[in-house]
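> call design_seq(struct)
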């Protein structure tokens, strides 16, 4: 990743058009390049400013009347509603990420691992990108990661224990690609991030932040960080079901 590549993709990053791996590459470059970090900050500031309702001006009555019939199309209204909902979700996710970071006195790019994991969990729920591979079959999800990561994550079937698998995706956490397994606990979603323990990352202690529980552990081979709005006891029970 160089500055030219960053400049050509930064708008796609802000619009949520990149996958987690490419988004992570751009974010990592911005952490190392002061010029690109300034560019990213300026674009994000502009994007936020454009949401100011004071910048919106009503169309003249004649123009509104001209397009009234087309605008009332139910299909068009549905499309506009969906676009607005996605935009609002992305803005909310960005706001929550900034809130987590500001509480720690840090720029979002410098958030601790726990806050990074919570931010990724929130983005996956609000940006309509929960799974890259949607399946309840561990024999479908586990092979999907082959060739996409430099490790093979464990993908146990925990449906009988009350944690049905619903899929997986690639994500980017603490400056590296990770596997994200998606489990359900009743009506709640759990993001379980997995990467090799050889990275020697200091795992965060159990905590709860803004209603999200965080539980991290390592079995000596893999690191695990689980995030959800379930109770801490549920995440502890999930961790106990993985091989140690």
């Amino acid at each position: 990743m160089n500055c030219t590549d960053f400049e050509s993709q930064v708008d796609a990053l802000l619009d949520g058009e990149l996958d987690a791996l490419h988004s992570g590459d751009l974010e990592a470059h911005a952490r190392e390049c002061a010029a690109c970090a300034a560019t990213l900050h300026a674009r994000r500031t502009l994007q936020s400013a454009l949401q100011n309702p004071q910048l919106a001006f009503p169309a003249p009555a004649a123009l509104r009347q001209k397009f009234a019939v087309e605008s009332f199309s139910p299909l068009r209204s549905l499309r506009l509603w969906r676009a607005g909902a996605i935009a609002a979700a992305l803005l909310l996710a960005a706001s929550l990420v900034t809130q987590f970071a500001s509480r720690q006195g840090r720029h979002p790019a410098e958030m601790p691992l726990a806050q990074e994991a919570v931010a990724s969990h929130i983005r996956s729920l609000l940006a309509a990108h929960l799974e890259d591979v949607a399946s309840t079959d561990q024999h479908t999800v586990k092979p999907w990661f082959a060739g996409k990561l430099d490790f093979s994550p464990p993908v146990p079937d925990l449906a009988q224990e009350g944690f049905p698998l619903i899929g997986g995706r690639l994500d980017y956490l603490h400056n590296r690609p990770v596997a994200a397994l998606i489990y359900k606990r009743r009506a709640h979603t759990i993001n379980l991030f997995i990467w090799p323990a050889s990275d020697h990352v200091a795992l965060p202690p159990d905590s709860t932040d803004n209603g999200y529980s965080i539980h991290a552990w390592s079995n000596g081979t893999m690191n695990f960080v689980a995030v959800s709005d379930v109770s801490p006891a549920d995440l502890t029970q999930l961790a106990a079901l993985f091989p140690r």
